[in-house]
Amino acid sequence: MNQAANTSTESPGETTARIPDTRSGAPAARDIDATLSARLRELTTAQLHQSFDQQGSFLYLEDFLPREYTERLIDAVHAVTPAVNRNYLPGHKAGGSVSRHAIDKLAPFIADLYRSPALIGWLEAISGDKLQLSPADDPHAYALYFYTRPGDHIGWHYDTSYYEGRRYTLLLGVIDDSSCRLDYELHTRNDAVPDEPGSVQYPPGALVFFDGDKLRHRITPLGANEMRVSLTFEYVTNPNMRPWQRFISNMKDSIAYFGFGQVFRRKAGKNGSA
Ligand SMILES: [Fe+2]
User: Fold this and answer.
1) Where is this region: Disordered (predicted)?
2) What pLDDT, in 10s, does the model give residues 178-228?
3) d(CA 274, CA 148)
């Protein structure tokens, strides 16, 4: 049940920063939290919360992750590349995905980053919501999206919440050797405010954070000889999901993202129903 990433290798007496994880040379979870805390203290969180609200639950920060963490994420991309699942949905989406299940095995640093209490606390301050981790069987909890072939893209959509509460998406730039843009429209679900289009080409280390039901967005098609990889984290305000919603969500994940093996085999192992 526990992810491999939660297996601490720290010695009980060691409390100083940067205690190496002996399995991979990666920093331990507590270390990650300390580093992120220091980084987050540099940000003007109250102002950013205000900006998030004014933009209809959307925030973009070009310089967010500590540089060494961006480099670790690039290493993680290489580690998970054999597990990329490619999908093509005509008119909607083409690209590759690596689910949290593969990330747990191949790049546990990402799982530690996802669970960082400092990061979650900061996202709560930005959103004004109490956030929870996505359930263990949600392949989107943390996932890498690969744009590697010309034309890879995802069309206009919302990150719809199939949960009973809200679903927040955090995007982190990892590799961007591309002309792809994240196009978005703010306020589309708020009749009192005019729609406001925007577009960013978020570089490695940048952050995009939004309420999935409020931000209409797309990634424009990859050009020739280009490559782009981004990391997504999903947090929820209520991890419960009604059975029909779960079925729809699983079908969507199987077809559009991770494949039936990744989505349903897990569930068969967990609850005996394939
Ligand atoms: Fe999305």
Assistant:
1) 1-28
2) 999 999 999 999 999 999 999 999 999 999 999 999 999 999 999 999 999
3) 32
Q: Give the Å distance between the CA of 232 and the centre of ligand 1.
A: 9
| Domains of the chain with CATH codes | 24-271 (2.60.120.620)
3-state secondary structure of 231: strand
Secondary structure (DSSP) of 71-84: HHHHHHHHHHGGG-
CA of 15 to the centre of ligand 1 (A): 39
- The pLDDT tens digits for 166-175 are 999 999 999 9
Residue ranges in 107-257 assigned as alpha helix (H): 108-115, 117-127, 243-253
Closest CA to 141 of 259, 274, 253: 253
* Distance between CA atoms of residues 181 and 207, nearest Å: 14
User: For residue 145, how many C-alpha atoms fall within 13 Å in the half-sphere facing its CB?
Assistant: 24
Distance 18 CA to ligand 1 centre (A): 34
